[in-house]
Amino acid sequence: MTGNLPYNISSQIVFKLCDEHHVFPFACLLFQKEVAQRIAAAPFSKSYGVLSLAAQHFYDVKMEMDISPHLFKPQPKVVSTLVSFKRRESGPFAKDYKAFLRVVKAGFSQRRKKIINALSSYLKMDKSELLKALEEAGIDPNSRAEQVGLEQFIKLSDSMSEKG
Fold first, then answer.
1. In Å, how far from its chain's centre is CA 9?
2. Is beta strand 2-4 parallel, antiparallel or unpaired with respect to 26-32?
3. How far, in Å, CA of 5 to CA of 130, rounded?
4. Are residues 28 and 64 in the same domain?
5. Whole-prediction pTM value?
6. pLDDT reported for residue 164
7. How confident is the model at residue 91 (pLDDT cuts 50, 70, 90)?
8. Which of 44, 61, 87 is the last residue of a domain?
9. Residue 64 maps to which CATH number?
10. What's the CA gap between 42 and 44, in Å, rounded?
């Protein structure tokens, strides 16, 4: 799939692409640069978040090139970035992608809080249960969501799904 998308629905398109990952082994899409940075962001960066983890769960994501506003008619006020999505053939993948997204959204719901507090508040779970799940996933309960990598979030969501 290729496309120059309306920038105001970029995030929704990425989530839909992930929902339909089995249909699209490759996509090359144009985004506003700031959105592209969020999609391709790594842990410990300011741009890292739900969109990064959603996209990177199923795809190897790469920012290919920036495209200057003067190359468009009408000219946008922002720089655009071409992003490639190549479907990952091997995991790890979450056992339940919707549960994975719920855990990721919970972790980032209060970005500056410790992950245990953000998860507890958003998911309305007992902290002792969360501590066990975090420990099983190899996540320090005092860390923040932006410090937790994709594989750790997958382990956490799988662990929490098993517990019900």
1. 16
2. parallel
3. 39
4. yes
5. 0.93
6. 57
7. confident
8. 87
9. 3.40.50.150
10. 6
Is 65 inside a domain boundary? yes
Whether residue 111 lies inside any domain: the answer is yes
- Three-class SS state of 46: coil
- The secondary structure of residue 20, as a DSSP letter, is T
CA–CA separation, 116 vs 105, rounded Å?
A: 13
For 89-152, the DSSP string reads: SS----SSHHHHHHHHHHHHTTTTS-HHHHHHHHHT--HHHHHHHHHHHT--TTS-GGG--HHH
66 shares a domain with 110:
no
The whole-angstrom separation of Cα 58 and Cα 94 is: 10
| pLDDT, tens only, 15-58 | 999 999 999 999 999 999 999 999 999 999 999 999 999 999 99
Region 96-110: mean pLDDT is 97
Q: Please give the residue range of the domain that contains residue 102.
A: 97-163
Residue 92 lies in a domain: no
